[in-house]
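From the shared-data thread, chain only:
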Amino acid sequence: MALAESIIPSGDWKRLDGIDLLRGLAIFFVLMNHVNIRLLGADVLYTKFLPEQLVHFLVWNGQLGVQMFFAVSGFLITSITLRRWGSLARVSLSGFYRLRFARIAPLLLLLLAVLSGLHFAGIHHFVVPAERGGLGRALLAALTFHVNVLEARRGYLPGNWDILWSLSVEEIFYLFFPIVCRILGRSKLLFAVLFGLVVLGPFARTVFAHGNEIWEEYSYLGGMEGIALGCLTSLIVSHTRFSGAMLWVLGGGGAAIAASSLIFSWQAYVGWPGRTGLNMTILGVGTCMFIAATAQTRWRSPRLLAPLLKIGQYSYEVYLTHMFVVFGFFGLFLQAGGRMRLVPGLLVSTILVAGLLGAAVSTLYSEPMNRFLRRAAGSGLGLAPTGETALK
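Structure, as tokens:
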């Protein structure tokens, strides 16, 4: 058996509640953070009567939510690759890239077309200013996956463009992932490369950023650390059967580490974990421990968490479309007078409608296009094996 060959039959995995829960939590924190930024920008000081610890937990963990996304992404892509091709060393380069294109491109291209139309229409919040390079420069950055680089050099783009920084990190990673797997998939060097990315992550958020605040959060290496952690987790889970006691340690310990990282995120950020860049690494490790335990046990979430699981199932669509909802409801909030008592309704309605919009976009557009492109690619790809769609 090759080093990175899966011992899990290709049809063995169904939808994993642990994965959907993490994605749901991640998108929740991203949504809360983006609404919070608009509220503070409009001088709506809605948090002054709330406990500071609660405020930091609820509305300032957007970046940590993206770190959770990255870890989940690495785990899923590696697991899918193992199940489809049996071994990372046997991955088809053309097949891998076609699968990524079918999943990512339809919604991304539609989003860019809509944003271009809104830019030309001069709609507030959607115009890319000249000092940021204008529409053409933003389109080039989005299509060649270096929105993060553009922002680090010229400043933040409008909200709907800004979120594409994380997609830039992911897709550059996955551009090289199958190539590295083909070359190193039968040796321990693959683990060394992935572990090296994990080691470099904290340095990317501190030393390598050279004081650039945007690059501290948006750098390639800083984000690839989380993806690499997810990849390593998938490889370990795929050919290691943990004992019941170890699964309890991984699940309970991972949940405790992740929860502590989120609850005490501000203390970690201003303390040595933040100064060294290790706060994100710690969260990534805790997230991956939880993933490993819930994947092997096929953990079933309590029904109480069903809304989070549901929004997690459509996380890609929710992530790429949620800023339309944020700007729309925030505009209505301001038109209603921007009263403090309306803030809870703003937050709840934004999360609810963003989830519904993501589900609608997935059902009516993304998934039909995904299936169509896979069929069009020929029998070499076909439709997903059992469980693969659930793990995308």
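The two ends are 26 Å apart (CA to CA).
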